[in-house]
């Protein structure tokens, strides 16, 4: 049996629940009443606490701010019709959390702390888990370096925190995406597979340029030749081409997504051939031209299954079929939702019960 950790709980004296408009929840702007904080010092995690959500005091010299020793995870908790609350596949995020930590020379976090910290906040804030379709409580665990020292060296102290907030889907419409053939998100030997804060910062300029041209997301390509599709800015890119589900293999330039893994598992169970391999821009464009590309979507926790409506490359835009008519992504979305919201049996053991 796993040990129950000693987490000190201080409840808020002023809940913001009543003043929160659950019909208007732009992603990432609303936070629940509590958060989790723990400190790493002298080689161990200590001071495990749930406290009211709010500002924290930090030295302006912390190395997270200067040198980017900072990373995060993203998960969701769902409310079932019977009131149960479950978190989707947190064991996978726990593994990825520690891969990110190792890549950034930061301490790993025991899986029990990862799971129980989230469960403690979500349990206390269970009234914040929305019950509306397509809505969930987004959970953001993160770690950052806190040594007030400007030497470029791994910090000796860190904070691990969890904040949460009710959300709808990250993307509210069918995506118009651009294949990026100049800027690079991640190169071999880099940290693309880590959920490092810096990966997102470096993507902002190319994303803004694409947004100015009217695009919703970029599809990143390989750093060497810009000939192979890698992933999107906040989701893995998946395609149904010639009846096969294809997506880039998970390697050091790509975030190994939990949603991607889940979609692959379901597709295999349905007898669909799955190929995780190098996916060329040329074959995707050819598929779009010939109609063999019958589905294209971003897969991610925040994004859920986000349909791609058109793909542009080198100034040419290729339009895909109406997302409502796409058999595969519609079935994946419906199946995933049924499992996450407890309407279908969780035969894979993907739902982690809170409370
Ligand atoms: N790729 C990037 C860059 C992401 O930020 C995300 C979101 O977490 C994903 C892929 C999808 O990963 P997951 O399905 O684990 O959320
Ligand atoms: C997630 O899906 O959890 C993400 O981290 C995407 C995001 C950067 C909003």
Automatic annotation (TrEMBL):
Modified residues (N6-(pyridoxal phosphate)lysine): 195
Catalytic EC class: transferase
Gene Ontology MF terms: L-isoleucine-2-oxoglutarate transaminase activity; L-leucine-2-oxoglutarate transaminase activity; L-valine-2-oxoglutarate transaminase activity
Pfam short name (any one): Aminotran_4
Reactions accelerated catalytically: L-isoleucine + 2-oxoglutarate = (S)-3-methyl-2-oxopentanoate + L-glutamate; L-leucine + 2-oxoglutarate = 4-methyl-2-oxopentanoate + L-glutamate; L-valine + 2-oxoglutarate = 3-methyl-2-oxobutanoate + L-glutamate
Enzyme Commission number(s) of this protein: 2.6.1.42
The protein's annotated pathway: Amino-acid biosynthesis; L-leucine biosynthesis; L-leucine from 3-methyl-2-oxobutanoate: step 4/4; Amino-acid biosynthesis; L-isoleucine biosynthesis; L-isoleucine from 2-oxobutanoate: step 4/4; Amino-acid biosynthesis; L-valine biosynthesis; L-valine from pyruvate: step 4/4
Keyword terms of this UniProt record: Amino-acid biosynthesis, Aminotransferase, Branched-chain amino acid biosynthesis, Pyridoxal phosphate, Transferase
Cofactor(s) essential for the protein: pyridoxal 5'-phosphate
Keyword check for Amino-acid biosynthesis: yes
Domain of life the protein comes from: Bacteria
Keyword rRNA-binding: no
Purpose: Acts on leucine, isoleucine and valine.
Entry's family note: Belongs to the class-IV pyridoxal-phosphate-dependent aminotransferase family.
Name assigned to this protein: branched-chain-amino-acid transaminase
